[in-house]
Description:
alpha+beta; single chain; 14 helices; six-stranded mixed β-sheet
Amino acid sequence: MIRMLLVGYCFGIRSERRLCDEVHLNLAYRWFCRLGLDGAVPDHSTFSKNRHGRFRDCDLFRRLFEATVERCMAEGLVGGEGFAVDASMIKADANRQRSIPGAEGLPADVVNHAVREYLAVLDDAAFGAATPVVPKFISPADPASRWTGANGGLAFFAYSDNYLIDLKHAVIMDVEATTAVRPAEIEAAKRMIDRTQERFGIWPQRLAADMSYGSAKTLAWLVHERDIEPHIPVWEKSMRTDGVFSSRGDFTYDTRADVYRCPGGKMLTTTGVSDNDGQLRYRASKHDCHACTLKLRCCPKEPSRKVLRSVHEGARNFARDIAKTDAYLTSRRERKKVEMLFAHLKRILKLDRLLLRGPNGAKDEFLLAATAQNLRKLAKIIPLPMQAAPA
């Protein structure tokens, strides 16, 4: 059955009924699945019974995926120096026309395996605990999926497929299913990096990602806790366009004195206590601002100027310095490999919409698809052994 599933995901056969028919008729598929000419093909219902039973009990799909990673490592396809991370939204098997307002919650009479899985992950940082924001709509068929309009056009229910890849040959090192919100995707990136180190003993020197992963906390985690160079654009607030002085471009920070100096030469000091967002507030004296000739260009609507500085500004500055190097330009170019994998996933393997429901269903499908992509990578790069010519 596992070999049949691999055939389906490798060749974009999304229907299990059709997969059974294809294996029944195709001799190559029969050979791969170790079925003789008269071997009985399992019924399509058998997959569902085993998926909800012994397959998940032993985490079989995760073990299968990790076996492909180990084979790629053995063949020298994994460099282990540079990684890239990204996420892509995959539509859930949930009808948007049958959704209910999120503020109302799930009806008490809705009971199915997807609802039970949803209740089980309410405290998981990758699902229910990822954000306190109540979704606009909930799907009774798959409540763990997230209502999103991030792609533009009509909103839909989706899960996020998270990939961590090695940049040498774009081998997928880890995969994680999460709800389709950015905090969950960042948490998934941390989990995948830690799991890769624990499972395979590989710790990357650098990590490439887009600006969504460039928050101060994420950069600090990479730099200070994991000693990984963040080849990631720093997330910055938009620059002012109204002629008022910018806190980053026009104010100078004195590291030794821990003060900012304004364009007029006055000091902005802080109490050293950060707010809930990890921001330190530096304030100028009201007396200095009131007498300053630059007040209309600095704080026209406030009695004194204030500047916010992250407690993780050191990590942000480190990432900014990396962005000036040639290695960063190389990482930005190589990061496109993970985007190409998602394009291949949706266009070639036909995984643009899930067949299974619930967090476990999304996890199973993403693991099998990543396994298929690694196997296709092996088949493409590793040459077949030469066979001796018959005498």
